[in-house]
Protein backbone atom coordinates (compact mmCIF):
# COMPACT_ATOMS: atom_id res chain seq x y z
CA UNK A 1 0.00 0.00 0.00
CA UNK A 2 2.84 2.37 0.85
CA UNK A 3 4.49 1.71 -2.54
CA UNK A 4 1.22 2.53 -4.30
CA UNK A 5 0.93 5.78 -2.35
CA UNK A 6 4.52 6.70 -3.25
CA UNK A 7 3.93 5.85 -6.92
CA UNK A 8 0.77 7.93 -7.02
CA UNK A 9 2.51 10.81 -5.27
CA UNK A 10 5.40 10.69 -7.73
CA UNK A 11 2.94 10.46 -10.63
CA UNK A 12 0.99 13.44 -9.34
CA UNK A 13 4.16 15.50 -8.87
CA UNK A 14 5.35 14.64 -12.37
CA UNK A 15 1.98 15.59 -13.80
CA UNK A 16 2.02 18.88 -11.94
CA UNK A 17 5.55 19.62 -13.10
CA UNK A 18 4.55 18.91 -16.69
CA UNK A 19 1.48 21.11 -16.35
CA UNK A 20 3.50 23.97 -14.87
CA UNK A 21 6.12 23.68 -17.61
CA UNK A 22 3.45 23.57 -20.30
CA UNK A 23 1.63 26.54 -18.81
CA UNK A 24 4.90 28.43 -18.53
CA UNK A 25 5.72 27.86 -22.19
CA UNK A 26 2.19 28.83 -23.22
CA UNK A 27 2.36 31.99 -21.15
CA UNK A 28 5.70 32.92 -22.71
CA UNK A 29 4.21 32.45 -26.16
CA UNK A 30 1.28 34.69 -25.27
CA UNK A 31 -1.34 31.94 -25.14
CA UNK A 32 -3.61 31.60 -22.14
CA UNK A 33 -4.42 28.23 -20.65
CA UNK A 34 -8.15 28.73 -21.02
CA UNK A 35 -7.96 29.74 -24.67
CA UNK A 36 -5.44 27.15 -25.79
CA UNK A 37 -4.69 27.41 -29.48
CA UNK A 38 -6.30 24.48 -31.22
CA UNK A 39 -5.11 25.50 -34.70
CA UNK A 40 -2.79 22.50 -34.94
CA UNK A 41 -5.82 20.24 -34.65
CA UNK A 42 -7.29 21.72 -37.83
CA UNK A 43 -4.59 19.82 -39.71
CA UNK A 44 -5.75 16.59 -38.08
CA UNK A 45 -8.79 16.44 -40.34
CA UNK A 46 -12.18 15.26 -39.22
CA UNK A 47 -10.90 12.35 -37.16
CA UNK A 48 -13.49 11.38 -34.53
CA UNK A 49 -10.88 10.81 -31.85
CA UNK A 50 -9.43 14.27 -32.49
CA UNK A 51 -12.86 15.84 -32.00
CA UNK A 52 -13.38 13.85 -28.80
CA UNK A 53 -9.94 14.80 -27.43
CA UNK A 54 -10.54 18.46 -28.28
CA UNK A 55 -13.92 18.42 -26.55
CA UNK A 56 -12.48 16.81 -23.41
CA UNK A 57 -9.57 19.27 -23.41
CA UNK A 58 -11.76 22.36 -23.84
CA UNK A 59 -14.14 21.24 -21.08
CA UNK A 60 -11.23 20.53 -18.72
CA UNK A 61 -9.61 23.90 -19.41
CA UNK A 62 -12.87 25.76 -18.85
CA UNK A 63 -13.52 23.96 -15.56
CA UNK A 64 -9.94 24.51 -14.38
CA UNK A 65 -10.23 28.23 -15.10
CA UNK A 66 -13.58 28.75 -13.39
CA UNK A 67 -12.91 28.38 -9.65
CA UNK A 68 -11.34 31.60 -8.37
CA UNK A 69 -8.12 31.34 -6.43
CA UNK A 70 -8.62 31.97 -2.72
CA UNK A 71 -5.07 32.32 -1.45
CA UNK A 72 -5.43 29.03 0.44
CA UNK A 73 -2.95 26.74 -1.32
CA UNK A 74 -4.65 23.56 -0.14
CA UNK A 75 -8.14 24.57 -1.24
CA UNK A 76 -6.88 26.05 -4.52
CA UNK A 77 -4.89 22.91 -5.27
CA UNK A 78 -7.88 20.63 -4.79
CA UNK A 79 -10.41 22.84 -6.57
CA UNK A 80 -8.24 23.03 -9.68
CA UNK A 81 -6.93 19.46 -9.62
CA UNK A 82 -10.39 17.87 -9.58
CA UNK A 83 -11.29 19.16 -13.06
CA UNK A 84 -7.75 18.32 -14.23
CA UNK A 85 -8.24 14.71 -13.11
CA UNK A 86 -11.76 14.61 -14.57
CA UNK A 87 -10.22 15.71 -17.87
CA UNK A 88 -7.69 12.89 -17.65
CA UNK A 89 -10.54 10.42 -17.18
CA UNK A 90 -12.36 11.78 -20.24
CA UNK A 91 -9.21 11.59 -22.35
CA UNK A 92 -8.60 8.02 -21.19
CA UNK A 93 -12.16 7.15 -22.23
CA UNK A 94 -11.44 8.55 -25.70
CA UNK A 95 -8.35 6.34 -25.85
CA UNK A 96 -10.43 3.30 -24.93
CA UNK A 97 -13.02 4.15 -27.57
CA UNK A 98 -10.63 4.84 -30.44
CA UNK A 99 -7.20 3.51 -29.49
CA UNK A 100 -5.94 0.14 -30.56
CA UNK A 101 -2.59 -0.29 -28.77
CA UNK A 102 -3.09 -2.82 -25.94
CA UNK A 103 -0.52 -1.17 -23.67
CA UNK A 104 -2.12 2.25 -24.03
CA UNK A 105 -5.56 0.77 -23.49
CA UNK A 106 -4.30 -0.85 -20.28
CA UNK A 107 -2.77 2.49 -19.24
CA UNK A 108 -6.06 4.29 -19.97
CA UNK A 109 -7.94 1.82 -17.75
CA UNK A 110 -5.40 2.35 -14.96
CA UNK A 111 -5.66 6.12 -15.35
CA UNK A 112 -9.44 5.98 -15.03
CA UNK A 113 -9.21 3.91 -11.84
CA UNK A 114 -6.45 6.01 -10.26
CA UNK A 115 -8.04 9.34 -11.18
CA UNK A 116 -11.44 8.27 -9.84
CA UNK A 117 -9.80 7.31 -6.54
CA UNK A 118 -7.92 10.61 -6.35
CA UNK A 119 -10.99 12.66 -7.30
CA UNK A 120 -12.96 10.92 -4.54
CA UNK A 121 -10.17 11.64 -2.05
CA UNK A 122 -10.08 15.34 -3.01
CA UNK A 123 -13.88 15.62 -2.83
CA UNK A 124 -13.84 14.08 0.65
CA UNK A 125 -11.05 16.51 1.62
CA UNK A 126 -13.11 19.44 0.33
CA UNK A 127 -16.18 18.34 2.28
CA UNK A 128 -14.11 17.97 5.43
CA UNK A 129 -12.42 21.36 5.03
CA UNK A 130 -15.38 23.51 4.03
CA UNK A 131 -14.71 23.37 0.34
CA UNK A 132 -17.00 23.17 -2.63
UniProtKB/TrEMBL annotation:
Ranges where the record places region Disordered: 34-54
Secretion signal span: 1-27
Regions that span the bilayer: none
A Pfam family: DUF305
Keyword Signal carried by entry: yes
Keywords: Signal
Every DUF305 domain range: 38-125
Domain of life (superkingdom): Bacteria
Entries under PANTHER family matching the protein: SLL0788 PROTEIN
Entry protein name: Uncharacterized protein (DUF305 family)
